[in-house]
Amino acid sequence: MNFLKAEWKNLALFNYEVDAEILEKYLPAGTEIDIWNNKCYVSLVGFMFKNTKVLGLKVPFHVDFEEVNLRFYVKRFENGEWKRGVVFIKEIVPKKAITFIANTLYQEHYETQKMRHEIIENENTNTFIYQWKNDKEWNTIELETKNIPEEIKVDSEAEFITEHYFGYTKIDEETTFEYEVTHPRWEQFEVLNHRIDIDFKKNYGRDFGFLQTQKPTSVFLAEGSKITVKNKRKLQLVPVEEKLYA
To answer: Which pTM does this prediction carry?
Structure first.
């Protein structure tokens, strides 16, 4: 059964190369860090939720809204194949009801903040701005792009960042929730300029404060599409003792 249907639009992705050890304590049981070209990434992502339906229903005043999240990439081997997914450090939205539902039903790490966005359209370029307020200070991510979409190439860094179709949530050291996200392959817009003005430590904690002085390895703007989030399932994990004696 589908938990949520919506459109994810204009995904601004700021990607940072990090030491995988930083992420170990956030890693859900049954998954491992997903690496691309020997690089471990975290991504700061701002985008729009549009036409949102929860369990088939549009909730008044909760249909269109912003989200900004910090995430990293994992994979899980099951039934002879790799599933590639993401783990969220924190997801910021402007609606308390969204935070309540996500944190209660999915035990995610949502937080409610005042948010705003702006799209400035010019003849050949577009500028996308996402902002959220934390402790009276506005945080901003902004990028300018060409306005003609292009395909995301196979085996590219942009494909690695955008083509993950599962979400994993660490409940405790032995329990993990998994949910599937479906969407068609996205296109991207070439990024011309970008700007970041946020307090990483205040927003994401001491573990990620170092990003304050680190430049992103890459910046993308994905066009987005309709998406479906399926109901979560609790993973059946094989205890270590059984693995040893299998």
So the answer is: 0.92
